[in-house]
Amino acid sequence: MSQSCPFCRIVSGELKADIVYEDETCLAFRDIAPQAPSHVLIIPKDHVPSASHVEDHVLWVSLMVAVREVVRRISPDSGYRLVVNCGEDAGQTVPHLHVHLLSGRPLGWPPG
Ligand code: AMP
Ligand code: ZN
């Protein structure tokens, strides 16, 4: 756990969040500044700064299982997008690995 990391503080319960799914390894909660009608973040409970810092590849399976469960819960009608911003150029602002799950509107391509 990183005391300065907002997502670690959500995992510990120190910071409130609108949690939509939780299992042993992962947590999913609504983004505080949604970029689509539905915007959920799926994170590992352990502090991992970014994709390239994942040591145990099984973590990716856990994250994708959590994504599947959230998708089943929110059942987006006409598609959704998964985004993982990594590093400065990608606009990563929270250095704790997270998958954005966006849905509820047409999503432009290519992304900005
Ligand atoms: P990124 O820019 O890919 O690092 O995404 C970080 C996301 O975390 C942004 O969409 C923020 O709106 C969101 N965020 C930051 N702090 C919180 C929080 N306390 N609760 C929920 N979402 C947050
Ligand atoms: Zn963290």
What report would you give on this structure?
The structure is a single chain. The protein is globular and about 35 Å long. The protein starts with 5 loop residues before the first helix and ends in a 9-residue tail after the last strand. The protein has a 5-stranded antiparallel β-sheet, covered by helices on one side. The protein has 112 residues and is of the alpha+beta class. The longest helix has 17 residues, at 58-74. It has 2 helices and 5 strands. Bound molecules: adenosine monophosphate (AMP) and zinc ion. Residues 2, 5, 7-8, 47, 96 line the site of zinc ion.
Provide the CATH superfamily.
HIT-like
Mass-distribution shape: globular
Q: Which percent bin holds the helix content? A: 10-25%
Number of strands: 5
**CATH architecture verdict:** 2-Layer Sandwich
Ligand names? adenosine monophosphate, zinc ion
Distance between the termini: 32 Å
Element string (H = helix, E = strand): HEEEHEE
Number of helices: 2
Q: What's the structural domain tally?
A: 1
Given the helix and strand composition, which structural class is it?
Answer: alpha+beta
Descriptors:
5 strands; binds adenosine monophosphate; binds zinc ion; 2 helices; HIT family, subunit A; 22% strand; 112 residues
Topology, please?
Blueprint: H1 6-12, E1 19-22, E2 26-30, E3 38-44, H2 58-74, E4 80-83, E5 99-103
Antiparallel strand pairs: 1-2, 2-3, 3-5, 4-5
Bound molecules: adenosine monophosphate and zinc ion (ZN).
